[in-house]
Each structure stands twice: as C-alpha cells, then as structure tokens.
Amino acid sequence: MVSPIYYFTKSGCVWCTKMQPSIEQINETLSDEQKIQILNVDDKKSRVIYDTILTINKLRAITPMLYNSNIGTYSLGYQDKENIQRFLKANPLKERNPLKPIPTFDIQNSSKKDFDNWKKSVILWYEENEKRLPSNVIDKDRMIDMVYKQFMAYKTKPSTIEDRLSALEEKVDQIFKKIS
C-alpha cells in the first residue's frame, strides 16, 4: 500500500535540505503504510502529482510541501520535526515566528560609535536566530568584517575634487616609481 502522506522537495532547495533529516527520522518510527513518501518535483511523475495538488487546492508552487491525500490537508514551507509530527496527527501546527530582519547599517551617515552599536545588535540577532538560520546565511564574523571594510573604505575615500586629484596623483607617482 502506498502512503497517503507526500513530502515534496526540489533539487537545490535549502529549506528542503534542512527539513529532510526530520522526515527521515520520523519515517524510521512509522510502518510502511504510514511512511511519508518523499517525492522530488524535478521527477516527471512526481511533478504531475505536485501540479495536480497545486491546481486542486489553488496553491502557489512552494517547496518543501507536505500533503495528506486522505484528508486533503497541506503544509507549505519548512516545518520542524515537532510540526511535522503534528501534521501527521492532523493537529494544528505550532505557529512559527518569522525571522526579524537583520539590523541595517547606513555606511554613508554613520560614525564609528554607530558601527559598534550595529555590531552589537548583529551579534544579538545571530544569537537569537542561530538555530533557525538556513545554511546559506553567512556567519556573523564574516558579515561584520564585510560591512566594516565597506565602512572604512567609504570613510577614507576622498570627498572633494581636490582630494580625489591628490589621491590620483599619488597613485600615478607610485606607478612611476615601480616602473623606474
């Protein structure tokens, strides 16, 4: 007998990759009739099933997606292990709070003190969201380093035409010294 529960995934989907181990762990505890059937929408047969479900339920194409064909319920997007188990029991899913946006930094109108405050808020943001970040988000040290380099480049760049010309003259002089 084929499982009535489908899990639709797609190649290259970060959230699908993050959710797949939970699906596999749950499948280990289920009988063959209860196991979640894992389907990749890149496969033609799976795509037909996926498109049919989307059409019937008037849904947008989103992966990962869980679908219970017995009762017609679905769950779009990433779900943690606890929510997947709730879905299997037809219980309401625990509401997830979306990530707050990462703090922004105005390079052009900020001081060193503003940068330090921004850095503290970014460190806090990463700590608060550490467990929920997808794998393609760069780490906090790299993020802070990139912004700091941009900030310093902006602060040290010449601002007037005279300063720009002086900087160019210095670079030309350096090139002439290397040549000769």
How are the SSEs placed, and which strands pair?
Layout lengths: L4 E5 L4 H16 L7 E4 L3 H14 L7 E4 L4 E4 L4 H8 L23 H18 L10 H17 L4 H19 L1
Main beta-sheet strand count, sense and barrel state: 4 strands, mixed
Name the beta content range. Answer: 5-15%
Give me the count of strands: 4
Report the helical percentage: 40-55%
What is this entry, summarized?
The protein has 180 residues and is α+β, with helices and mostly antiparallel strands. The protein is built from six helices and four strands.
Primary descriptors:
4 strands, 180 residues, single chain, alpha+beta
Walk me through the structure.
- The chain has helices spanning 14-29, 44-57, 81-88, 112-129, 140-156, 161-179; strands at residues 5-9, 37-40, 65-68, 73-76.
- It is of the alpha+beta class.
- It has a four-stranded mixed beta sheet with strand order 2-1-3-4, with helices on both faces.
- A hairpin with a 4-residue loop joins strand 3 and strand 4.
- The longest helix has 19 residues, at 161-179.
